[in-house]
Amino acid sequence: MGKTVRPKSGASALSILHLIKQVQYKAYVRLESVLNPLDVTAVQFRILTTLSTRPNLSSAELARLYDVKPQTMIKQIALLEAKKLIGRRVSDANKRLLELTLTEVGKDTLKKLQKDTRALEDELLQVLDADAQADLREHLTRLLVSMEGAAAGDGDRNAEEFAREYSRAGVQRL
Fold this sequence. Notes:
Layout: H1 16-35, H2 42-53, H3 59-66, H4 70-82, E1 86-90, E2 98-102, H5 104-125, H6 130-152, H7 164-167
Antiparallel strand pairs: 1-2
């Protein structure tokens, strides 16, 4: 795959946190360019992905899941509804609750976006062979589990964080 770059270690080495942030930012910019032709933002892609695996959530449930204010989520839901990517319907269990689902247009759009984001991930990671990609995924997962445990205070892995929609290429938290 080309020449292996071994950065310096010690005081003169680049900060790992800096490198992670730079990779995240550049990947995010590329992700937005993949999503833009279908008029979807990374945040909206995330919501669509979540609704594909967990239909019938309310906007309040999504807001709690993403740890954002309900008003923030309502704005995104309104944009997705205006694009006809999601629909709202009255819950059978609670007539005061509106449940969110993907429309057929939303399902088709999400399939295209998932295909495009997988291709982007493949392109971005082509500099790493399969073993290096597996190692990277393992190391990042270990770091995430460690940080989630520290944040939770009990060391338990947050199952929601490792649900399918969180592990998709290019998926961003709100």
